[in-house]
Design brief:
Strand content: 5-15%
Strand order of the largest sheet: 4-3-5-6
Oligomer: single chain
Shape: globular
Number of domains: 2
Helix content: 40-55%
Distance between the termini: 25 Å
Order of helices and strands: HHHHEHHEHEHHEHHEHEH
Low-confidence stretches: none
Mean pLDDT: 93
Structural class: alpha/beta
Number of strands: 6
Length: about 240
């Protein structure tokens, strides 16, 4: 499925997600008429509008074998919060159960469904054998709602010529939180400062996450401090290192 931040701001993340899945033999289908999952409206209290989007999403994807999302927040919206949003819609109760069993975040799908937890045989060695130091930021919904903690680390730690270095408080929010960063910019800024500090202390030359929204927040903070630390979605890192 599409992700609106990725679709509008980071199409390269969507492309890398598709390329990685295709590399591993996943037959892809991207419904052209799909829309947002409804999370922004849901989080802002516009449940009536969010319901319309949720129903459309279910209709668009109910016949899919799997629904793969390069975003922990969107995946959790569909898997966890659709039940709350559509609790009074009897016609959708069974459909919600079915679709929630089909939804997977990108890294979760690779590890748990494709059963690929070691990328060393799929990834290439660099010409100069230099080790790329990557640190991982855990997005809030991915960790707390979906309980996906190990899959991204498992993949990142097995990429050839790449070393995963843990930052302190990797599980702490970066301060984005969708409209939270707009409603409470001062608090968001202080949270981002702490996150940037921990990234720098890790000595990594690249920070990654499973959510583009987190990376938007973090990359903005790094740029403001003129830090030469790259920010990339996990799909981009995997895609760049695959043997072809």
């Amino acid at each position: 499925m599409k992700h609106r931040i990725i679709d509008n701001f980071y199409p390269e993340i969507g492309e890398s997600t598709a390329k990685v899945l295709d590399y591993f033999g996943v037959k892809l289908n991207l419904p052209e008429n799909q829309s947002c999952c409804g999370q922004p409206a849901f989080n802002s209290g516009y449940w009536k509008e969010s319901k319309k989007l949720a129903k459309k999403f279910i209709t668009d994807f109910e016949n899919s074998n799997y629904i793969i999302v390069p975003s922990g927040s969107c995946a959790s919206m569909i898997k966890v919060f659709y039940k709350e949003l559509l609790h009074d819609e009897k016609d959708y109760s069974d459909k919600i159960t079915v679709i929630s069993n089909k939804i997977f975040e990108f890294s979760e799908f690779i590890v748990d469904i494709l059963d690929i937890n070691d990328l060393s045989t799929y990834t290439k060695n660099s010409a100069n054998n230099e080790e790329n130091l990557i640190t991982y930021h855990e997005s809030c919904h991915l960790r707390r709602e979906l309980n996906v903690k190990n899959a991204p680390r498992q993949l990142l730690s097995t990429i050839s010529n790449t070393k995963l270095v843990e930052m302190d408080q990797s599980e702490v929010c970066c301060g984005f939180g969708g409209t939270f960063s707009i409603k409470y910019p001062e608090i968001s800024f202080e949270m981002l400062k702490d996150k940037i500090c921990n990234i720098k202390l890790s000595k990594a030359n690249c920070v990654t996450s499973c959510d583009a929204s987190c990376l938007m927040q973090i990359s903005g903070g790094l740029n403001k401090q003129n830090e030469n630390i790259k920010s990339k979605h996990i799909s981009q890192i995997i895609n760049e290192n695959l043997k072809r």
